[in-house]
Amino acid sequence: MSSSSSSDYPPGVSGGKFSPDGKPLPFAGNTLLMHLSPTSATYTYLLQLHEALRTSSMSHLYTLLPPPSWHMTIFEGVCDQVRDAEHWPRDLAQNAPLDEVTEDFSRRLSDFSLEDDGPPYLMMINGLDPLEVGIGIHLEARTQDEERRLRRLRDLLAERLKLKMPNHDNYGLHISIAYLLRRLTEEQERELKGLVTRVLAWGPKEFELGAPEFCTFADMCKFDRKFYVGLEEEKKL
C-alpha cells in the first residue's frame, strides 16, 4: 500500500481538481471572469510560454490549461464541492443544487449595471504568481483609478450576489496557465521561475479586457459563457 496521501500533493490535486497524472476531474461551479482575447498580442505571446512549458524537461510537474480557457477572474462564484458559510451566498441554503444557484445568480445579474465600472479594463502583467497552486501570471490594473474601479466592481458583485469570500479584499488578479501536480523542490522552483521569467521578460506587458462574463464550468479546463454582465443586449453580439 502506498504511504502517499492528499497532503503530498499541491492544492490542485489534493483539492480534487486534477488527478496526480494531470487529468481534469469533475469540479463544477459558476464564476464571473473576462476571457483573454485570442486576437490580443498578450495571448499570442503567452502561447510562447505555453509551448516552452510543454516542451520543458519539467513538464511532468504540472498540467497545462488549454489556451482558450485563459481568463482573469473578477469575482469567484460557487463550487459544488465547496459548501460552507464562507464560500456560499448567505441567503441560500448550503444544500441548494448548483443549477438552482446558477439560475438565482442569473436573475440577480440580469439587471446589474456596470455604470462607471464598465470595460475596457486596462491591465498589465506584473510577473509570476507564487508557485504554490500552479503557474499563474500576476496581473495589476495599470493605474490607481483602474484598480479602484475593479475593486468597486467586486464589491458591487458581492453585494448583489450576497457572497463575500474571506479573501475578498486581497484577492490577487491573475491568469492561470497550469496547475502543479507535484510539490516542487527548491531547485525545481528556481528552474521553473527562471523559465517563466525569461519568457515574460520580452513580451508585451499591457492589454485590455472586455465585459465580465457570467460562466459555468464542469472542470478547470473550460468556462462556458452564459451571458455578458451589465451590457445592453445589442452590445452582447
TrEMBL record:
<dbReference type="Pfam" id="PF08975">
    <property type="entry name" value="2H-phosphodiest"/>
</dbReference>
<dbReference type="InterPro" id="IPR015069">
    <property type="entry name" value="2H-PEstase_DUF1868"/>
</dbReference>
<feature type="domain" description="DUF1868">
    <location>
        <begin position="17"/>
        <end position="130"/>
    </location>
</feature>
<protein>
    <recommendedName>
        <fullName>DUF1868 domain-containing protein</fullName>
    </recommendedName>
</protein>
<dbReference type="InterPro" id="IPR009097">
    <property type="entry name" value="Cyclic_Pdiesterase"/>
</dbReference>
<feature type="region of interest" description="Disordered">
    <location>
        <begin position="1"/>
        <end position="21"/>
    </location>
</feature>
